[in-house]
Amino acid sequence: MSSIPTVIAVPRLEQPGRLTQARVAVSEWTKLHSLRSTRWSLLAATVLTIGFPLLFATILSTRANPLQEHRHSALEVALAGVNVSQLAIAVLGVLLITGEYSTGMIRATFTAVPKRLPVLWAKLVVYAVASFLLMLPCVLIAFFGSQAILGRKDLLQISFTHPGVARAVIGGAVYLMLVGIFAMGLGAIVRNTAGGISTFAALFFVIPPLLNVLPTTWNDAISPYLPESAARSIFALTTDAHSLAPGPGLALFCGYTALAIAIAAVLLVRRDT
Amino acid sequence: MAARLVGMIEAQGLTKDYGEKRAVDGLSFTVQPGVVTGFLGPNGSGKSTTMRLILGLDAPSAGDVTVNGKHYRDHPTPLHEVGALLEARSVHTGRSAYYHLLALAQTHGISKRRVTELIDLVGLHEVARKRAGKFSLGMGQRLGIATALLGDPSTLLLDEPVNGLDPEGIHWIRNLLKSLAAEGRTVFVSSHLMTEMALTADHLIVIGRGKLIADTSVEEFVRRASGGTVLVRSPQASSLRDLVLGEHVSVTSTEPGLLEIGGLTAEQIGETAATHGIVLHELSPQQASLEEAFMELTRGDVEFKAGETASPSVADGVAA
Is A11 on the interface with B (CB under 8 A)? Predict the structure, then answer.
């Protein structure tokens, strides 16, 4: 014990910097990439977004029977992974918020950024940019990869420049990004991992099929306006009478996302930590 | 050149209710720079809540608290004003100590070099890249100390910093707190252990059930609580008792020949005995230990008393 110095000199900080929104964003980027759960979720999203279409295309091209070919569309194959990887993206969106609450990290975060809202904005921007930049190449690889596989048997060929195709493929990445930040908003509202994931799953996977028990006219009147179906129109090539066009669908889902974030922001400032 | 180091915490009628329960009840106090101020109270007396109120993590139900003249959230460089170690762990278990510190440092543009300096200072060099979830309680406390020091703050808030530390670590913390105070910083450190505070603190703020019980120097605290009784052993104890008994004098006797006299000094008792030829075998002023003083003052303010509750499990956490 004699080795413990009586006077412990803490190194001084020459120039303490001000707290800024940009710095909070840098901090959130560090938080994002320094967690194992982030790396696993994003790896899962990447593998699923690319792997599913390639698998789907391979199965179709080996078993193809010209009579069944038209039951699938080229884009359905290319974007098949989006339906699965959205879960990984949504779970990560929830976790990036709720993980701070479950571990107590949020107290350290809000001690460093006591105004709190800059943390929410930074998390949203960092996750939106990171997920979009990662998912964009994934959907492009999925499209060209699945087309190449199908092309060997001359099946389901569609050009990237065909009207609506580029929009739908890139829309797949936009969809995943928006789902991620929508889930982040849900996570910030419920502040609990299980609750956040359940809420997302209820909105996206449970409620839409439940509406099928309604009379058809009701179902057709309500379904297109649910968050999930509005969002899906972003990457649909064709729209039928009972779904929204890509533009309005995108706008409506952005509205839902903005609403979730607005509620989260109000609660974030008001609630005790 | 070194930045200014003037810090002060001022609470005015600070009150916090959680539903029906009042955790902090009209607390007013000032924590001064340059000394270590101990924040003492039994478990559950509202110390951690008060710390959270100071940092704005919880909003007060009534009253107000400022740090260096402003609400904590209104400072442009919060980490340079206050460094905090909160009692409950405040670290993501999946992140390494290095990235935990770096992420917090980056909010204020604090360099990687300072992060490594602090990791070395608290002795976490070898485990800095390991996930914080694998840390022992003591390593977690060291990481908390490094977090608190990141912004070179003028005020330090430390909630039960010695919890889980080994004797060497406790010794190190004591020296650190004294060094920080000697540099002119405000050091506000909570504990439910009186003996720990006796070794570290210069000034004490004592609370029980969320209310202020004492705001005083450590010496004054002990003097006040000991009540100034004098222990007297004499073969003529009953004669002495009759002689000293008076309006402001209390005498209790636990065994024949032994008196505990309150309200008179040892000198007065000795002189009375000499005047009347009474033989004394012992005459000793009773100084309550700090621990006893604390128990005495917070008696009745402990939330659950061991004797009064049927469930020992409820009492356990508080009796410590």
Answer: yes
Contact map slice: B 124-163 vs A, CB within 8 A? 131, 147, 149, 151-152
Q: Which tokens is B281 given?
A: 């075998």
- B3, part of any domain: no
Predicted confidence (pLDDT) per residue in B203-218, tens digit: 999 998 899 988 998 8
Question: B92 at the A interface (CB within 8 A)?
Answer: yes
**Is B92's CB within 8 Å of A113's CB?**
no
Which residue in chain B has the smallest CA separation from A8?
B176
B211-217: strand order across its sheet: B82-85, B155-159, B186-191, B36-40, B203-208, B211-217
Tokens 């002189």: give the residue.
B271
For residue A84, how many other CB atoms are within 10 A of its CB?
15
Tell me, rounded to whole angstroms, the distance of Cα B165 from its chain centroid: 17
- Same domain, residue pair B38 and B137: yes
The reported pLDDT for the residue numbered B147 is: 96
Same domain, B133 and B247: no
Give the span between the Cα atoms of B72 and B115, in whole angstroms.
Answer: 23
| B198, B95: one domain | yes
Range of the domain at B262: 228-285
pLDDT in tens, A139-179: 999 999 999 999 998 888 899 999 899 999 999 999 999 99
Residue B223: C-alpha distances to residues A101, B8, B39, B292 (Å): 45, 27, 18, 11
Domain of B268, CATH number, reads: 3.30.70
Q: Residue A100 belongs to what domain range? A: 21-270
CATH number of the domain encompassing residue B130: 3.40.50.300
Q: How high is the pLDDT of residue B112?
A: 96
Task: Say yes or no: B188 and B267 in one domain.
Answer: no
Among the candidates B192, B217, B242, a domain finishes at B217
This complex has an ipTM of 0.93
